[in-house]
Specification:
The chain is about 45% helix and about 10% strand. The protein is built from 15 helices and eleven strands. The strands form three sheets. It has a five-stranded mixed sheet with strand order 1-4-11-2-3. Strands 8-9-7-10 form a four-stranded antiparallel sheet. A two-stranded antiparallel ribbon has the order 5-6. Helix 1 crosses helix 9.
Length: about 450
């Protein structure tokens, strides 16, 4: 989700009316205020005031007095266009999505809405749009204000202190905006790209959560920046020649908070059984990670043989994969492929058991049928329900070029395959300004005086 910031002023916008009085920011009242943007701006300015030297602080004050214009572009991948496509009699296919203009309008009942009773609805795909938006605004502002330099982070393999700063400010702003400390993974993946993640201890942002009125925000932010951020981030991505697909079944939405609440009630009512199920689920998750990492290692050591075998398996169903083996390296690769499938089946089993025990549809019957059918297709390594489960989405990991056939088959199951793909990169500076392309009403501009 791109975001850019600039001065001088251009125009005010419906997203939010914010005004700045150094050293703090205050937001004007209105139906269109956005807490994620407000907290992102407040904490970025405070971070600049807390970390820059005096000479730069003087320049910062002059810069802020000119005002800021922040333009936020919502990528199509974050929003559902299924109803739009169906209403026009178009096929449920990636081609129909690809034909939409970039940053297309995301409100579909604006005609029916009125100022007194309701707002236009926004249908989302559940990919963490608020976290992506918060991270984009934070990264753009911190770079613009001189707190970080993001010009070279894209191809930097090692830990990057500037990205770490973006992560800390974005996590804090996002937690405060949503009123709780969630998993944190959506913000972390927006900052760093694909990786394995273990959340930080919530206490690290306690100073922000309990900040006393009148406490200068720069002091609060400085304490947070110097806090013990104990999250774990390990490099991880899909092995070569594998594609992650996401599908939208259109079977009705699921309430993640409600489902999580039901699972927590089950944990309290049956701690022994729930701990056993969660332990088995964790072991299956670790087994899947191990098999995928093994495949990445085998690809690195025996790339030509790996490519040849993946190409062969991509046009075969699972029971035929073992027949493609012609040497020990092939055998090791197929063993890891089948091990990954077995681990995924274990994950699905334990999630289904958890859902039944908690009385929530983590993998409902309709999804089970769809996932079983998907895993029986040629070239499909695994399939499942992402996140907290439910009816919202399904995913699949495919081998070689088999993804195109999977998306066609999904269409026959009334599933819309989305265009989004795994990206090992997180925050980066765009080489071209998205505003030079066709722009629609999905763009929100925030003007700060």
């Amino acid at each position: 989700m791109p975001a850019s910031s600039s001065a001088p002023t251009l125009a005010s916008s419906p997203l939010s009316n914010l005004s700045t009085t150094l050293p703090s920011l205050t937001a004007g009242l209105g139906d269109s205020r956005n807490p994620f943007v407000e907290h992102a701006v407040q904490y970025c300015v405070a971070a600049a005031q807390a970390t820059l030297d005096q000479e730069k602080k003087d320049s910062l004050e002059k810069l802020l007095l000119q005002g800021l214009d922040i333009t936020i572009l919502g990528s199509n991948d974050f929003y559902s266009y299924r109803n739009y496509i169906e209403a026009r009699g178009l096929p449920l296919s990636p081609d129909a999505l690809a034909a939409l203009p970039a940053f297309a309008s995301i409100t579909f009942n604006a005609e029916e809405s009125n100022e007194e009773n309701c707002k236009p609805e926004v249908a989302k795909t559940g990919l963490g749009s608020s976290a992506a938006m918060t991270t984009a605004v934070v990264a753009a502002l911190l770079h613009y204000l001189g707190v970080v330099n993001l010009a070279s982070v894209l191809y930097q393999e090692k830990d990057n202190a500037d990205l770490d700063t973006v992560h800390v400010i974005a996590q804090t702003a996002h937690c405060l905006a949503q009123g709780k400390v969630g998993s944190g993974f959506d913000v972390s993946s927006a900052v760093y790209g694909s990786h394995r993640y273990v959340r930080f201890s919530p206490e690290v942002i306690s100073s922000a959560q309990v900040a006393v009125m009148g406490t200068p925000l720069p002091e609060v932010v400085l304490e947070i920046l110097k806090g013990k951020w104990d999250h774990e981030r390990t490099k991880f991505c899909l092995p070569p020649l594998m594609t992650l697909l996401l599908g939208e079944p259109g079977a009705g939405g699921s309430s993640t908070p409600s489902m999580v609440g039901s699972v927590k009630k089950w944990q309290k009512s049956d701690p022994e059984k729930s701990l056993d199920t969660l332990r088995k689920l964790s072991e299956a998750n670790s087994a899947l990670e191990t098999q995928l990492n093994t495949l990445s290692e085998l690809a690195e050591k025996h790339l030509d043989e790996y490519k040849c075998l993946i190409d062969s398996c991509s046009i075969q169903k699972t029971d035929k994969w073992i027949e493609q083996v012609s040497n020990p390296n092939h055998q090791a690769i197929v063993k890891a492929l089948l091990g990954a499938r077995e681990a995924m089946l274990g994950i699905r089993l334990h999630m289904h058991q958890m859902g039944e025990a908690a009385g929530v549809p983590i993998e409902p019957e309709s999804q089970t049928k769809l996932l079983d059918a998907t895993m029986s297709m040629e070239g499909v390594l695994l399939a499942g329900v992402p996140g907290a489960g439910g009816f919202d989405a399904v995913f699949a990991v495919t081998l070689g070029d088999s993804g195109s056939q999977v998306t066609k088959s999904w269409s026959s199951f009334n599933v819309l395959a989305l265009l989004v793909r795994e990206d090992p990169h997180g925050v980066s500076l765009e080489s071209a300004d998205p505003r030079t392309k066709e722009i629609t009403s999905s763009i929100s501009s925030v003007h700060i005086d």
